């Protein structure tokens, strides 16, 4: 079974095949000695010869996934505990409103920055924001400095907009048409493994804790790992140096100007108006997280059970990504048929998972302040645990299908960067609204119903674009 971690240029790998990142043209000119050439020489020396070339898409997508593992993966681990690991969800919710509001604006235009600055610089700038945000949660735990926490949310909105647009562009444009589903699956699986490990760390460190918040040691580990991810992003190649396994190049527009990138963005909106019908689906794609993490997990369970739930949730996301990604790349059906089947599966999952959630929420008694929260040793733990697993599976399938739909609409890298920016920008607008709703005195049932209706309605709107625009081959 091929994965992005296995060689994709079978028969073309030579001993010390080299890691020519960004110096292909320079190597053709005698005597051209530059910093980039020195950098490539170092990678040539250090990179194992039995692996695919360092500039192979499989290696680069895996590196980006590892950066996602360390930066947003650790952030997911904290956020999934409910309240960012704090006792009260309100401070983290306010920071997340600031985060997603900024993200919504920046993400919409982040494709311009990615195309102009390149993948490496954009991911590096984006990754640092996660380190500062995790630090601000630790700071708030001891000082209750709400101003710093909200500032960290604002700057993470800026950084995350850049990060996820660059990540999406790499994940969608580096693979060939036949392998996009697998690349999306492996990217999402490695990224979610960061949340699994982060949650497992929290579980071990809080197993015997009587407190209802995360210990300092957990924060220190998360902060250190996210900083490591920022450093790792500096080792990436630029897109112009990468070649796909079929020999076709991967490149962004040559030396784009800010003016040309803004024009490309407006042209995309003007000529590809079908993308607007996917916006509601983008909006819904993170909308359910506050309900799941805060209303369901934080309000119901103690810290060690929340840590266990969080570990299981992200494991379910890994499984969902794997199943969806490989199914979407199946050669047994035409791509247009796969798109239609995927849409139908999403409808079934919406009504299965969220009907189960509605039944559970209706039968659950209201939480009383100071009441003892549920533990995984309780006899009635199995039901909500399985529901939480279903939440994770659904979230992964929804996100994987959305990315695959976008990758099936075009092979134009500039357009894909803009599509990724639209996706993350509109998604973040939904996140800002949902975290604000979660902060207000909205009943748990009403919050759940809003998520349920939004998911079903957005997919219904997007279905026409998916059916009409996903063809068997992309021009």
TrEMBL record:
- Entry keyword annotation includes Membrane: yes
Disordered, as annotated region: 1-36
Keyword list, A-Z: Membrane, Transmembrane, Transmembrane helix
Q: Where are the transmembrane segments?
A: 59-77, 97-114, 121-140, 146-164, 185-205, 217-237, 273-291, 341-360, 385-406, 445-467
Main localisation = membrane
Q: Where, subcellularly, is it found?
A: Membrane
Provide any one GO MF term from the record.
Answer: transmembrane transporter activity
Q: Gene Ontology cellular component?
A: membrane
Residue spans making up a coiled coil are none
- Quote the Pfam families the UniProt record gives: MFS_1 (PF07690)
Membrane topology term: Multi-pass membrane protein
Q: Which PANTHER family match?
A: DUF895 DOMAIN MEMBRANE PROTEIN (AFU_ORTHOLOGUE AFUA_8G04110) (PTHR23294:SF54), ET TRANSLATION PRODUCT-RELATED (PTHR23294)
In Swiss-Prot or TrEMBL terms, this protein is called Major facilitator superfamily (MFS) profile domain-containing protein
């Amino acid at each position: 079974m091929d994965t992005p971690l296995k060689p994709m240029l079978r028969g073309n790998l030579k001993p010390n095949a080299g890691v020519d990142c960004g110096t292909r043209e320079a190597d053709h000119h005698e005597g051209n000695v530059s910093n980039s050439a020195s950098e490539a020489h170092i990678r040539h020396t250090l990179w194992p010869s039995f692996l695919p070339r360092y500039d192979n898409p499989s290696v680069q997508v895996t590196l980006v996934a590892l950066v996602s593992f360390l930066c947003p993966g650790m952030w997911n681990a904290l956020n999934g505990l409910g309240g960012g690991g704090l006792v009260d969800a309100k401070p983290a919710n306010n920071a997340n409103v600031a985060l997603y509001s900024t993200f919504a604006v920046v993400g919409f235009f982040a494709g311009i920055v990615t195309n102009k600055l390149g993948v490496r610089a954009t991911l590096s700038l984006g990754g640092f924001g996660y380190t500062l945000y995790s630090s601000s949660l630790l700071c708030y735990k001891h000082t209750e400095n709400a101003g710093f926490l909200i500032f960290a949310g604002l700057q993470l909105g800026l950084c995350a907009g850049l990060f996820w647009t660059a990540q999406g562009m790499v994940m969608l444009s580096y693979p060939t048409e036949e392998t996009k589903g697998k690349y999306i699956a492996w990217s999402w699986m490695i990224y979610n493994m960061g949340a699994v490990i982060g949650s497992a760390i929290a579980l071990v460190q809080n197993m015997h804790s009587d407190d209802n918040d995360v210990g300092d040691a957990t924060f220190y580990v998360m902060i250190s790992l996210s900083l490591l991810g920022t450093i790792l992003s500096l080792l990436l190649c630029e897109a112009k140096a990468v070649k796909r396994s079929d020999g076709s190049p991967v490149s962004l527009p040559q030396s784009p100007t800010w003016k040309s990138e803004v024009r490309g963005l407006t042209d995309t909106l003007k000529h590809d108006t079908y993308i607007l019908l996917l916006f509601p689906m983008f909006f819904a794609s993170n909308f359910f997280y506050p309900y799941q993490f805060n209303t369901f997990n934080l309000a119901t369970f103690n810290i060690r059970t929340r840590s266990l739930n969080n570990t299981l949730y992200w494991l379910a996301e890994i499984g969902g990504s794997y199943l969806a990604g490989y199914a979407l790349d199946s050669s047994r059906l035409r791509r247009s048929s796969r798109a239609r089947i995927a849409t139908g599966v999403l409808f079934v999952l919406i009504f299965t998972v969220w009907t189960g959630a509605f039944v559970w929420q209706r039968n659950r008694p209201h939480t009383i302040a100071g009441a003892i929260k549920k533990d995984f040793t309780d006899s009635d733990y199995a039901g909500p645990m399985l529901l939480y697993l279903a939440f994770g599976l659904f979230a992964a399938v929804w996100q994987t299908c959305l990315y695959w739909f976008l990758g099936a609409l075009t092979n134009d890298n500039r357009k894909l960067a803009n599509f990724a920016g639209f996706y993350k920008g509109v998604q973040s607008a939904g996140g800002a609204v949902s975290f604000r709703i979660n902060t207000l005195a909205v009943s748990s049932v009403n919050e759940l119903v809003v998520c349920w209706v939004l998911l079903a309605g957005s997919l219904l709107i997007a279905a026409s674009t998916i059916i009409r625009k996903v063809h068997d081959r992309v021009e």
